[in-house]
Amino acid sequence: MRYAYYPGCSSESSARDQHTSSIAVTRALGIDLVEIPGWSCCGATPAHQTDRLLAASLPAANLLWARDMGLDVAVNCAACYNRLKTANYEVQHQPEMRKKVAAALNRDYDGSVKVRHIVEVLLEDFGVKNLETRLRHSLNGLKIAAYYGCLLVRPHEVTQFDDPENPQSVDTLVTALGGESLDWPCKVSCCGNSLSLTTRSDMVVDFSDAIIGMAASAGAECIAVACPLCQVNLDLRQSDIQKKTGRNYQMPVLYITQLIGLCLGLSFAELGLNKLVVSPSAVIKVVNENSFKF
Amino acid sequence: MTIRIKKGRTGQSLRDTVVQMSGVDLSACYQCKKCSSGCTVSAHSQSPPSEIIRRLQLGAGDELLRNDLIFTCVSCETCYARCPMGIDLVPVMDALRALAVQRKAAIPKGNVPLFNSAFLKTVHIFGRTYDLGLMALYKIGTSSYSQDADKIPLLIGKKKIAFLPSFSPNLKTVKRIFEIARQNKGK
Ligand code: SF4
Ligand code: SF4
């Protein structure tokens, strides 16, 4: 299995751990991620909030480079995933946009390069049964709230990822790892996205508080995420939540690839566990308890 | 609730401009308000999304461009996912935001357009985003140096911020895209 890998800008900063854990997990499973040479930014939310042509052309450029490689694209960041898929959708459905994008890129693009999120790669392409045979440790019934946020599941016409209101992909992976995935109501709530980086981070503190609070009351001992924006907002904002409300959740927020890596027996360094703000030690302890299956 | 609107400027109405820019048919909205019940930010904003549509339907003028929902909207697509009429509010908000900047409406707290332009500036220069550059541009623009300052040492310690920019080797393509998009503005 080989993919053209689109790391996305956050792989070089805030979500380095999502990047390294995905690389480590796929390597351990024999999935080949070949970085798209010279990849550039997808434009993220600021591009589509500013200019439609810019928002379609920036991802389309990268999809063309992937097409040159003759491979499907694998992507980690939910925001990049959303923008790449939106670009595909727009050039496929809007002939006017396709023409404009072709003019901007000096090359026609038909929207045909398949884009897969790492969760889809692991769950559907590699297969959960396959994954189970490779595990060396178990999550030993750890209670986990799978949190999907917005960009993977919406708009459904565009991303075609799972069910938009009650997705199960990350839950299925958690169950395969031996964890207990919880039924809880905030799976697809929004964490506030990039408002966190503006002077309205006060709003993000409220949203994160509501989401983590709900996970905690559902009994969660850990939140599993697949999006860098969700991870940063839920993990980093816990100290602000405490300052504002007095609630001290100490809720570990891990990427699903970090949880898989732990169960594959990969090193903490490869998985970037030291990058987490809230310590994942409670999770690590459970994984290490009498869990050698061999 | 009573909605009072001011008469729009003469010429093309705000509604028609928004419909043209977004490609979204606003006449299909029958005010069921499902969008507003699910909206991430409506409790923190002046108006819920259904009200923005109602105002546009009733012929609101440029005063609508000062409504802070246009800037607090996080493009989460919850409204679209739940709208029985399939109305996608995100392109509508994008259009209103662009018009607010074009027509120099007052931008509320948070200055999202400044954040967006700072973000895109770093992409234009490096081909990829550059956190420190982005933060500098935005913080200088909003004079908000102290906000979240406590996070910086933590983020640097955890290497969650890159010190040096990363250049995309395909910078030429990126610059070309920005140039064509600029020429294409308003077309
Ligand atoms: S959900 Fe759709 S139809 Fe209902 S008020 Fe919102 S935009 Fe209008
Ligand atoms: S996209 Fe904007 S208007 Fe729609 S639900 Fe999200 S925040 Fe509200």
The class by helix and strand makeup of chain B works out as: mainly alpha
Low-confidence regions of chain B: none
If strands are numbered along the chain, what order do they take across the biggest sheet of chain A?
A: 2-1-3-4
| Unreliable residue runs of chain A | none
Global shape of chain A = globular
Bin the strand percentage of chain B: under 5%
User: Given the structure, what is the number of helices of chain A?
Assistant: 14
Instruction: Please state the average pLDDT score of chain B.
Output: 86
Please trace the helix and strand order of chain A, writing H or E for each element.
Answer: EHEHHEHHEHEHHEHEHHEHHH
Beta-strand segment tally of chain B: 0
CATH architecture of the largest domain in chain A: 3-Layer(aba) Sandwich
Return Rg of chain B in Å: 19 Å
Mean pLDDT of chain A: 94
Structure description:
The complex is a heterodimer of chains A (294) and B (187). Chain A has 294 residues and is of the alpha/beta class. Chain A folds into two domains: 2-117, Glutathione S-transferase Yfyf (Class Pi), Chain A, domain 2; 137-291, Rossmann fold. Chain A is built from 14 helices and eight strands. In chain A, helix 1 links the parallel strand 1 (2-6) and strand 2 (32-35). Chain A starts with a strand and ends in a 6-residue tail after the last helix. The mean pLDDT of chain A is 94. The longest helix of chain B has 15 residues, at 112-126. Chain B has two domains: 12-102, no CATH class; 112-184, no CATH class. Chains A and B meet through helix 2, helix 3, helix 5 and helix 9 of A and helix 5, helix 6, helix 7, helix 8 and helix 9 of B. Bound molecules: iron/sulfur cluster (2 copies). One iron/sulfur cluster is lined by residues 38-41, 49, 73-79, 89-90, 93 of chain B.
